[in-house]
Design a protein that fits this description.
By secondary structure, this protein is mainly alpha-helical. It folds into two domains: about 40-170, Cytochrome Bc1 Complex, Chain D, domain 2 (Orthogonal Bundle); about 180-305, Cytochrome Bc1 Complex, Chain D, domain 2 (Orthogonal Bundle), CATH 1.10.760.10. About 40% of the residues lie in helices and about 0% in strands. The chain has twelve helices and two strands; from the N terminus they run αααααααααβαβαα. The chain has a two-stranded antiparallel sheet. α2 (about 40-50) packs across α7, α4 (about 115-120) packs across α7 and α9 packs across α12. The protein is globular.
Amino acid sequence: MSIQLKAISIAVALGMVATAAVAVTQEPITPIQPVKNINLAQVELGKKLYFDPRLSKSGFISCNSCHNLSMGGTDNLKTSIGDHWQQGPINSPTVLNSSLNVAQFWDGRAADLKEQAGGPIANPGEMGFTHELAVDVLKSIPEYVVEFKQVFGTDAINIDEVTQAIAEFEKTLVTPNSRFDQYLLGDKDAINATELAGYTLFKSSGCVACHNGEAVGGNSFQKMGLVEPYKSTNAAEGLSAVTGKDADRFKFKVPTLRNVEMTYPYFHDGEAKTLTEAVDVMGRLQLGKKYTEEENAQIVAFLKTLTGDQPAFQLPILPPSTDNTPAPKPFE
């Protein structure tokens, strides 16, 4: 092949690549990017803290209890179980890809992962402890004292360091490489005809107005029940509990649809048991659309292509308690 023909071939190839790149950027959903700019030492410490039940009053509940990394980063319960087997007030959102959220919690009361991490520890209905007592527990464990000093360069352990480490670990819990991401990146055989039909319907119906971007959601607050009112016995008021504005009543953070086949039940109150039910309710209440059985199945098929690579790592071995560490009291 002549140099001129090679140049033409390269130019054509580059043009095809550029066209493919444009096609990806024009889609309302974009592939998840690998995690960047993390502090590995904080991640390793945060991983231990995430799994350590000693940060709870009972010594039995950890972050992983409600955000189980073996179950899509949630607990698959309508509402979670808190201290003394209290029934939680709201469905636990997944921790997976939570770093992509505009804010944390359904009502957005935490600006970021670091602020969120401290909430459950001191919530009497969740882990039931106080920040001060949780820090005292960590100070009673020599291996933690050493590790905190190595990671943060200080002898003093405080809740700011605890939540920083947990947040840094949670930043790593992204799930790239879903079949749909592979499709977006050029592998048109990564999804089948039914799944593609579901995505086409997902777009044409207007679902992408709220469910877009890397997380396919999580970047806005929307009212639950735009076309028809949503009826629920759940007392949660949504964003208005944070802003105090009546206009924000029943506005909730749009949940991510990444790994959604794993994060049942659905909605802030956990009322939708299946994806089929969730798609039907969302179609009617948010879009004014009544999907046929076939259309519903197509959208559900598409949603299942959003399951990505789950976090995989060796479980941390937690440092042992000492004689000075409070013993677990799950029944008191």
